[in-house]
């Protein structure tokens, strides 16, 4: 993995990339921090980065991660960086951007005709400067396959964990999240920020309800049950839950159950029928149908792909 640090790079964005994919025995990634040239890259707020690799590193990488930087609307991307990113894209390299790093991908034309996002403060600027991009300002990150983009700062962690999920499965991504003391997974469709009309304590209550639900996936988790735990009416719970997460409560429950099924497929030899029972999906037919709709493959094919060469958490 190449982390491409450009002028004005934000320390948090660079740190997220380097820390999530940290070099340690349990992490199956080789990370190199590079710049347009070897030497010092001036960052933001008086910080600077000493990089030991240049753009040739992009030829080596399977994944390129571009951290955000200050004043993207007024920053021009060099021809060398654009050419290197385009060449990497043509080779099939996966390219992801944290926050305003999306402007670099946009300058290279890699987001044209695609759905993408960036920090909410700059979504309108991205749309104005690059009208061919389908800019979505209401999500944490967008996975467009070979090209991925994320919103600001902390959502970069969500994007990085999503990459790990794609590469090595739910169980291993959850292990990394625990090391980071981060939420195991927030879907890309979750809203970037909670509207001001929603009181802060309510968000805490709903977080507690989501945590409770994860421990009770075997129960009959109806909207009424969840609302009762949150101590609000079903109508209020449904409306505010959707505003907070970007999906309905029942969609969230289903995805939580499918995530649990993925982890069991990765880590156990339980049958599909047993996994359906252990996740609250009740039947293997139900599991296969929802698994295929959400993950895009069958439980059996998923197990075959992720039980080979699994990294061992340490």
UniProtKB/TrEMBL annotation:
User: InterPro entries recorded for this chain?
Assistant: Class_I_gatase-like, DJ-1/PfpI, Homeodomain-like_sf, HTH_AraC, HTH_AraC-typ_CS, INH-QAR
Recall the GO molecular function terms of this protein's record. DNA-binding transcription factor activity; sequence-specific DNA binding
Which keywords does this Swiss-Prot/TrEMBL entry list? DNA-binding, Transcription, Transcription regulation
Where do the HTH araC/xylS-type domain residues begin and end?
207-305
Residues annotated as transmembrane? none
Identify the SMART domains for this entry: HTH_ARAC (SM00342)
Q: What is this protein called?
A: Helix-turn-helix domain-containing protein
């Amino acid at each position: 993995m190449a982390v491409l640090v450009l002028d004005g790079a934000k320390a948090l964005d660079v740190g997220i990339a380097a820390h999530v994919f940290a070099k340690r025995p349990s992490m199956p990634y080789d990370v190199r921090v590079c710049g347009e040239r070897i030497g010092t890259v001036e960052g933001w707020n008086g910080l600077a980065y000493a990089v030991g690799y240049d753009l040739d590193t992009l030829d080596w990488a399977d994944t390129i991660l571009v951290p955000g930087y200050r004043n993207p609307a007024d920053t021009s991307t060099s021809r060398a960086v654009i050419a290197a990113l385009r060449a990497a894209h043509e080779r099939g390299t996966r390219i992801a951007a944290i926050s305003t790093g999306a402007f670099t991908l946009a300058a290279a034309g890699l987001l044209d005709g695609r759905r993408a996002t960036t920090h909410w403060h700059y979504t309108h600027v991205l749309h104005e400067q690059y009208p061919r991009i389908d800019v979505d300002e209401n999500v944490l990150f967008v996975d467009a396959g070979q090209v991925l983009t994320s919103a600001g700062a902390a959502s970069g962690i969500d994007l990085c964990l999503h990459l790990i999920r794609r590469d090595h499965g739910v169980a291993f991504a959850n292990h990394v999240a625990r090391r980071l003391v981060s939420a195991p997974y927030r879907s890309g469709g979750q809203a970037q920020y909670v509207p001001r009309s929603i009181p802060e304590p309510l968000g805490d209550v709903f977080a507690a309800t989501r945590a409770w639900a994860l421990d009770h996936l075997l129960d009959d988790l109806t909207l009424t049950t969840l609302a009762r735990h949150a101590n609000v009416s079903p109508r209020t719970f449904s409306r505010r839950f959707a505003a907070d997460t970007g999906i309905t409560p029942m969609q969230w429950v289903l995805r939580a159950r499918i995530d649990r099924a993925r982890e069991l497929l990765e880590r156990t030899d339980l049958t599909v029928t047993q996994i359906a029972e252990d996740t609250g999906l009740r039947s293997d037919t139900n599991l296969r149908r929802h698994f295929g709709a959400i993950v895009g493959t069958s439980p059996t094919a998923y197990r075959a792909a992720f039980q080979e060469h699994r990294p061992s958490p340490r």
